[in-house]
């Protein structure tokens, strides 16, 4: 019973977090420069994407860390 109640509360908070994920991720500072006739990102776009996905993956993996409050067979 307690595991189910905990699950419902965590599921609600997780859904709210997913909806606001983009707003709550750490800020990524990017410089946009014009060099050799082209606009360029600094750091490079690939690094920006990797950092963004790494932060998303951290959040998405949070539920894997939760354990129930009872013994394994108490569901």
Q: Short description, anyone?
A:
It comes from Macaca mulatta. The protein is of the alpha+beta class and 75 residues long.
* Main sheet: strand order: 1-2
| Fraction of residues in H or I helices | 40-55%
- Proportion of beta-strand residues: 5-15%
> How is the main sheet built?
2 strands, antiparallel
Oligomer state equals single chain
List the helices and strands in order: HHEEH
Summed up, the helix count is 3
**Average pLDDT for all residues:** 86
Low-confidence stretches: none
The rough form would be described as: rod-shaped
Q: How many beta-strand runs?
A: 2
Number of domains: 1
Helix/strand layout:
Layout: H1 2-19, H2 21-24, E1 31-35, E2 38-42, H3 45-60
Antiparallel strand pairs: 1-2
Structure description:
The chain is an alpha+beta fold and 75 residues long. The protein has one domain (2-65). The chain has three helices and two strands. The chain has helices at residues 2-19, 21-24, 45-60; strands spanning 31-35, 38-42. Strands 1-2 form a two-stranded antiparallel sheet. The mean pLDDT is 86. This is Cytoplasmic dynein 2 heavy chain 1 isoform 2. It comes from Macaca mulatta.
Keywords:
75 residues; alpha+beta; 3 helices
